[in-house]
């Protein structure tokens, strides 16, 4: 997993063009930062308090205020105001409807949307299958499924998200998700959301956010070196990675798929890369989180560590203010040449389609009427009718936006067959480059390795033999 | 009464009690029968595993085995229509496609079925083969009515229709339309299109379809334009 991906969208560089809708917050932050820099200067070794994101994002309706703040702090208010249209505030009620429409509850707990049936809840279902609690399938079938789903059993709950996350960050993240948790293979999928929907969802997810924000704990006098020492001494690296700073002495253990109890897995699998914290969280949140994680999120596997107030301050400062090395760009893997040997459908099915794709593009007739999000619809996607059950179904295409059947081998604008294009687009997404023409697949999962894509490309190039 | 007699009587009562209890349990198929307590009724639908195996056989080209399996599992399938039970639709498709691929003559199915179920499936006579193919066309047509806009089913219907002279014009139109969109879902579909185009004098179109058939098929023998259809008399 590329831990570097975390910073790119937040800084609006590689992803900037596609986050047009969420640019007000970066503009505001930049303007505010420039203004503060003029007054306070830069490069101080000792940390001075700085306004967290909440200064500008105190309510669930931050965007308009952001624009105003940006205009206020900019050297040319007229230009800034012209460049920053006033966006309507996020609507939590509309966001709740969208959370139902986009089926956020199929993965995330901690939302007050209507509960999702077990067979539709991706992670509960997987957890039951892996724990031999799943009813309704033969033991043979369950044994066959287990290795295919072992990697997808943990997902962060959104309990108390409003007390943790900056809604502007959630909005940006929904529009251009990136990898937050290096040891968790599934990632937030890139849903078919527009900017307003993302803002409404962010407002809903952070609905518990306090209208009046308490004063930020001060980081004045914080000692980054002491913070670093504490993060090493307390063994934070046993679960967390922290890319961009010197490597932590302990590293998260490799996660075995099998025979790994949730209590052991979750702290590691769900531990985010700490480099992202400064994009997501305020000083106050990090401070309170370190002091008492369960006080903010009751179901967190993060343990409470006995620390004094100064130690918490220093740790908070290190997490939020430690200088970060620029994230190295993630290269898009080189495409391997088309194979000369014959590649038949069976190989494609066993290596690729049956391993990953079929989960969302299956046959409703053999899955209680639910052909998955990529067939009968789900996660806000309309039914595309793409069934990858077998050879004939794979060749039968998918529905386009007009409801017309179209071959999944039809060329994209650059001539790449759509199926191949989707696999390559996922590689590009992981490198921070979104292809506006096609959504990367597999959705919300790591890109296929080049060797698997080579199999698919060779099969297509050979005329898709049975 | 002696101790021995008492013991015998006690054993008789015990046996009667156990028998009665077992009897109640045996007839209590109603989930609410046991004092309102919910008792699960486990019914295993053997058609699920059977259908999965039949479809596997279909992929492997074991058409007589598919037909035998489907007919044994669902003896009334010949007069059935696809309904809400997905198994029925899958069974109809598997039997129809197998019949079509055997040109209406499931020649060794008499080894797979009891005598009274064999009917015309063996297809020794031309009219039996034609009837079998016509049944397949109608079954696939019904499936296409149920699942509209499914090129996999449309290809199979086109393939079936191509073997019945009365439906060949419709088959040519259907398969040609699918080919224009690169949605012919099987080499058999392209083979049928190649034959139909050849028969209608479209040699170039026939060659194109044949080329696609050859690229997709496991064996070149599938992709021939010569030879008459089994449904032809």
Characterization of the model:
The complex is a heterodimer of chains A (about 475) and B (about 230). With about 475 residues, chain A is mainly alpha-helical. Chain A has 2 domains: about 1-330, no CATH class; about 345-460, no CATH class. Chain A is built from 20 helices and 2 strands. In chain A, strands 1-2 form a two-stranded antiparallel ribbon. Chain A is globular. The relative contact order of chain A is 0.12. Helix content of chain B is about 60%, strand content about 0%. Chain B has helices spanning about 5-25, 45-60, 65-75, 85-100, 115-120, 125-145, 150-160, 170-180, 185-200, 205-215. In chain B, helix 6 (about 125-145) runs antiparallel to helix 7, helix 7 crosses helix 9 and helix 9 (about 185-200) runs antiparallel to helix 10. Chain B starts with a helix and ends in a 17-residue tail after the last helix. The interface of A and B includes residues 344, 365, 385, 392 and 463 of A.
List the helices and strands and how they pair.
The complex is a heterodimer of chains A (466) and B (233).
Chain A: H1 7-11, H2 24-40, H3 53-56, H4 62-73, H5 77-83, H6 92-101, H7 122-130, H8 139-149, H9 167-175, H10 195-205, H11 224-233, H12 262-269, H13 277-280, H14 283-291, H15 293-296, H16 309-321, H17 345-353, H18 391-395, E1 398-399, E2 405-406, H19 418-430, H20 450-461
Helix pairs in contact in A: 2-4, 4-5, 6-10, 9-10, 11-16, 14-16, 17-20, 19-20
Chain B: H1 3-27, H2 46-59, H3 63-73, H4 86-101, H5 115-118, H6 126-146, H7 151-161, H8 168-180, H9 187-199, H10 203-216
Helix pairs in contact in B: 2-3, 2-4, 3-4, 4-6, 4-7, 6-7, 7-8, 7-9, 8-9, 9-10
